[in-house]
Amino acid sequence: MILTSLQEKPPYYQLEKMPVPTAVWSGASGLAELGAHWIHGPSEGNPVFRLASSYGLLGPGATEEENQRVEAKGHPLLPVITYGSSGKVLSPELVNGTRSLFSELLGSAQALAGVEELPASSVGQYMRAEIARLASAWDEDRDDKQLRLAVLSACLKLECCISGTHSMDMVALGSFGEYTSLPGLDCTFPGGYSSLPERILETLPEGTVLLNKPVRTIWWQGSFREEGDADRDFPVRVECEDGDSFLTDHVIVTVPLGFLKERHQDFFHPPLPQRKAEAIHRLGFGTNNKIFLEFEQPFWEPEQQLLEVVWEDESPLTEPSADLKANWFKKLVGFVVLQPPEQLGHVLCGFIAGKESEYMETLSDTEVLSTMTHVLRTLTGNPHLPTPCSVLRSCWHSAPYTRGSYSYVAVGSSGEDIDILAQPLPEDASGPKAAAGAVRGRGHAPLLLLHHARRAAVRLAGGRAPQPAPAGRGPVVIKVPSPQSSAWFIARRSLVLRGLS
């Protein structure tokens, strides 16, 4: 959340510790990204990439023009090995051919954006119908046909992770093609994703930012005065849980959609207009979690960077089991090998989305570690595979200030709901403005909240990029979630977003 005002006043809050999604993991020799992992679409059109490049935070090769032209479309382009549940490595030819087929079907689903008469309401329904149509003409033997269907099922699980949903049946077909993916070969921060906000914080005046300051209520469309100051009225008051309050002219709110779904009715006073409340209700918000496993020694080859998982008895044409206790781990799409091992140790990062991911959060570390050991022994066909020496996982659904990970356009909603949520309040340009919501453009890959806060700030400034505040003006309230808790960047009076224009 960002508070802005036109009145000069010296800052008086001190910077406190900042919980961030980049964790220093005691079980490994390096960092674990519990939140954002990559910069998706790292090219000149990506403001996060431009910022990181200008600060020199990226590794060698990340800024090469050749890498910026790669069309990854939100999918990992890594050397891959695919394990089947029979304990064998699957044929690369069959897997790659099936994956190419899935990409073609996904492209045809995206091409339906704007079509009035849609063949289905959801992406999942459309994909299954197309798969059934094509599968009826396959002239393979029964086992090969089933294996191809199992690979397609795994592809749908990956798409659930990318879209941040439990099932592609929940993602609206008509708006799916509105997502835009920037070009560029996905890259990471050698010093952790948190190195970017930390660098930005260094540019702010001392005392501008205060953390660990949960906000209870935003009072807007009011008339508030500070004690002893009868000459100045403020239209907005931000009330914190510890009793402190802040008076300001403008507020930019960048809380996740999951938080808004749960709290918007009591978080804003007066309540948000009906059309915003309805947009919050219609849009989808799902959970995507990570499971990190550290090993004393790797069981994978040095060139392997992605271990894919295929459960060979599954098919997109049959309903998956609803027994989460018995089958939650089957939603895992695979494991990324953290690089470089000399810095990060021998660590696998598993990705899991949906209700299965939320169920995982209810288990103990011991239960998760035991299950992951069983899964890896099954996939590799090695019953003696050593147990990982430590485990770490994110729990985004349980975190009260996030309640999930990603937003998506759900069946029954549209891209217009994103636009509605991003519009400032009140609509009367002469009144106080509060840009409320998980402000995001119609882009497929989630970007830093920083980017969306900047865009909201530009709108509030009448289309002008925000400029650094003069000395003596101070700060804001920005909410930045961590996996288990949440912090509020608190500042006040003037918007300070240096290096963003």
From TrEMBL:
One of its GO terms (biological process) is spermidine catabolic process. It is found in: Cytoplasm. Pfam families: Amino_oxidase (PF01593). Signal peptide: none annotated. Residues 30-424 form the Amine oxidase domain. InterPro entries: Amino_oxidase, FAD/NAD-bd_sf, Flavin_monoamine_oxidase. GO terms for cellular component: cytoplasm. Coiled coil: none annotated. This is Amine oxidase domain-containing protein.
